[in-house]
C-alpha cells in the first residue's frame, strides 16, 4: 500500500538487535530472523560503498541494508517503531529511517499513518523535516526522512538552561514560518512541542512528527482532542470545536 518501488532487497523482518520494543499494553514481540536469514540479510553490501570507503570489509559483513541504506545506531524508540540513523550507499547522505511494525498497528493507527504519510509528502519547506521515501515489506513499513543532526530543541534547552534573546528570536522566527506554510496548505499539526522541534546540523528548526496532523477546510472548525496536554490550547480541554490554526499558534507560543 505504501510502496514506491520494488522491495526485493528489503527484509520482511529485522534481527533482534533492530527489533521493536514490546508495547507496554501488548505482550507481542517482533519476530527475530533465523540465523540463516539473518546472515543473508545482514551481509547484503554494495561494492560501490566499499570502494568509496563508506564501509570497511569488516563493517560491511555485519551491517544491515534496507533498500539503498545501511542502518547504523538507534536514535529513537516508540511503542510500535524504532528510528535508525542510516547512510545512503551511493550519496553517503545521512537519513533517519523509522521502522514500523505493522503487527502493532490497529486499524485506527494504520489510518493515522496513511494520513501522516500523505501530509508529509505534500510538505517541502526548509524548516520542516522532509519525507524522502516510503518502503514496505510484508511485516514492516520504512519511512526515510531527513536527519536532524542536533537532536531535539528540548535537549538544547536542557543543556543551555536558557537561550539568548537573539537565538530564541531566530528559532521562533523559523517556527512561525514553518507553521505559516503548514496552514497555507490547509494542514494543522496539533502536536507542536519542544520534543517535536528538531535541529539540523546548523541549528535550524525542523518541525517533525505529523502523527496528529490533519487537513481542514477554510473557516471550518475541528473537534478531535489530541496532542500533548502541557502544550494544548484551553479549548481542547473544554471539548468544544476549535480553530485548527489557533491551536497551533497557542502551542507555538509555549514550545520554544
Automatic annotation (TrEMBL):
ATP binds at residue 98. Residues 19-37 have a biased composition (Low complexity). GO terms for biological process: intracellular signal transduction; microtubule cytoskeleton organization. InterPro entries: Kinase-like_dom_sf, Prot_kinase_dom, Protein_kinase_ATP_BS, Ser/Thr_kinase_AS. Its EC number is 2.7.11.1. One of its GO terms (molecular function) is tau-protein kinase activity. Keywords: ATP-binding, Kinase, Nucleotide-binding, Serine/threonine-protein kinase, Transferase. It is an enzyme of class 2 (transferase). One of its GO terms (cellular component) is cytoplasm. It catalyses: L-seryl-[protein] + ATP = O-phospho-L-seryl-[protein] + ADP + H(+); L-threonyl-[protein] + ATP = O-phospho-L-threonyl-[protein] + ADP + H(+). Residues 1-37 are annotated as: Disordered. It comes from the Eukaryota. Residues 69-256 form the Protein kinase domain. Gene3D superfamilies: Transferase(Phosphotransferase) domain 1 (1.10.510.10). Transmembrane segments: none annotated. Belongs to the protein kinase superfamily. This is non-specific serine/threonine protein kinase.
